[in-house]
Every structure is written in C-alpha cells, then in structure tokens.
Amino acid sequence: MKKLFTITMALIAFTVSAQNVTFGAKAGLNFASMTGDEADGLDGRTAFHLGVTAEIELSDSFSIQPELLYSGQGFTADNDVTGKVDYINIPVMAKFYVGDGFSLEAGPQIGFLASAKSEAGGESIDIKDALKSTDFALNLGAGYKLDSGLNFGLRYSIGLTDVPDGDSNGFKHSVLQLSVGFNF
Is the four-CA dihedral 41, 44, 45, 51 of positive or negative sign? Predict the structure, then answer.
C-alpha cells in the first residue's frame, strides 16, 4: 500500500505541473484469462474495471494518460472453479491522436494484488498468499473521444510476469477491456 500511495502521489504531482490536464473517470468490462503452458484447461472470467484518469496533453496529437483502476481478473475452469484475482492497476499510457478524436495508445502497467479467491462448490478459499503481490503488463489499445468528454476505449493487457509465487507454471494475465469514460 505504501508503494501504491507513493506512485499515486508522484502521478498527481506530475499532472498538476502540466499545462493542459483533463481528469476523468472510466468503467467497463474485462474479459480476462490466463496464458501459459498449462492454461489449456482454463477459460476466461468476465469482470469489471473502474477508476480515474488524468490526460496530460503534451501536443495536439500526443498525450500521457496515467490511470488508477480497480480491475477484476482471473479465470474459470472446466470443473466449475473460478479464480477471482483482483488488482489495483496503474497504467501509464502514451496516446497518439491519429484523427479527429481517435487515438492509439500503448504503455506499461503495474498492478498491486488486492484480493485473490478460488471459488468452487459454493466455497471460497483465499489464495492471495500463493500469488505474487505485483504484476507487470504491457497495454495496447485504441480510443475515441467526443467533444462532450464522453469517451470509449478498447485495450489489451499482455501480462509480462508470472502470477503464481514461487515455482511457476508460466501463468500470466491476458485481459481485453472495453470501457466508457467521461473527461471533466
């Protein structure tokens, strides 16, 4: 939590010193799954994400957008097991405006494990201690922003680090996000 607070404060300080900053909120659906050598028996988990954004305009066609998001991730398995792995994610996106309101984006993301549960047969088991507390990913996406401040986004998050702690089976997060937001 101390790391999360420090990173958040640094992002806020950076945004306050910028010339043209737009704050916003966003929410949407996550279509999450796991990749890896032994991930064949795992299916996706549909969850949600919710958070705040700060778009820092550096030129007419380029901006940096740090975000602070709650993100539901994880998987489901054939035998009715659901892995609910939820993070506080901090992506920092470089946004390139390629047309009127249309942008392409890419950037790194760090995630801090908020909760992790395995659910099966009506029972829930906390598995947080079996997973790494931080997760790194690379995000690629596209968006469209209306003059009213309403915006829409599509983003794919490619997990770069193994999710399990200790001996790993190579499981990494893979998340497709659809979002709707509003800039104030």
Answer: positive
User: Spelled out in words, what is the top-level CATH class assigned to the domain 21-183?
Assistant: mainly beta
User: Contact at 8 Å (CB) between 63 and 55?
Assistant: yes
Dist CA 129 CA 19 (whole Å): 43
Q: Give the residue carrying structure tokens 């946004």.
A: 95
Q: What is the dihedral of CA 162, 166, 168, 174, to 10 degrees?
A: -20
Average pLDDT for 149-173: 90
pTM (2 d.p.):
0.86
User: Is the separation of the CB atoms in 75 and 46 below 8 Å?
Assistant: no
Q: What mean pLDDT comes out for the span 87-97?
A: 98
Count how many residues are written for the chain: 184
Q: Which two tokens stand for residue 48?
A: 């949600």
Per-residue pLDDT reduced to its tens digit, 11-61? 666 555 557 999 999 999 999 998 887 777 788 899 999 999 999 999 999
Question: In the 8-state DSSP scheme, what is residue 128?
Answer: G
Closest listed residue to residue 20, CA positions, set 59, 53, 51: 59
* Domain chopping of the chain, boundaries: 21-183
3-state helix, strand, coil in the chain (%, to 5): 10, 65, 25
pLDDT score of 12: 61
